[in-house]
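1st attempt posting a full record on here, be nice pls
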Amino acid sequence: MTAPRDHGGGIDAAIATFGGTREGWLDLSTGINPVPYPMPTLPRDAWRALPDQAAFAQLYARARSFWNVPDGAAIVAAPGASAIIAALPRVLSQGKVCIPGPTYNEHGAAFRAAGWTLTPDASDVLVAVHPNNPDGRHWTATELDAPTTIIDESFCDIAPEASLIGLAAQPGRVILKSFGKFWGLAGMRLGFAIGDPDIIANLGEVLGPWQVSGPALAIGAEALADPQWADETRERLKDDATRLDTLLTGTGAELVGGTPLFRLYKVQNAKAAQTHLARRHIWSRVFPYADDWLRLGLPAPERWPELEAAF
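the predicted structure (as tokens):
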């Protein structure tokens, strides 16, 4: 059995070491919005019937509008962006791929599993995580010149003005979107690939029919038609990110980067800081390649006092 890759989450392992209950822990190890999109009332058929083409068509139409998808770009939905990340290396012509890092490690794992050669420079495929996880780096269109370029915008809905969605109509370009981060609905498992129609068509074949559940289709369509919630959420997240920066830099931590959904700090000893917080049942993220990097997501509004008390 393959060992799990380094990720946020893992509250069950934290509980085994530090005690407590899942409800009592404050999980700041992920970049998931702690105030998720409110659940709409779902039609009964969302649960009872196989998803039909009308439901997919509605979701795609609203995705086009919400993300300003250019004409000529195709869309396919999947059970989470991770499903698309795993499938993409298998629908592209195998060669060399460049994945500048450190970054989200599922991209590299997926290409390695499909037999690709990872290279640090010019390649057949470039994967750009935009903004990058964990440091929040933004890419520019002029940097993305590989024949095939995958732009992972899983965290970009916090800053729509930075999106590179305008490239989606160009040959060899694929933009990834996630519903788990900005909308706070990671358990719903909904993601999108937007871009080159040939690549998107191949992805659709690999993903198969009914690749997204009826409830996910209905909730996704509702959320994408609610720009007011999105605008209000962006303002709240920006304010909370500033509050977190003030708290951490007040303890001597140095802000490295991040997005309004997660912040990356340089501390003297990240593992010691993680343990300090874990003893107070607050879970954070550390990285095997940087022993002074500590990443924190945002707490729900009612749980700020717990975090402030811990520092």
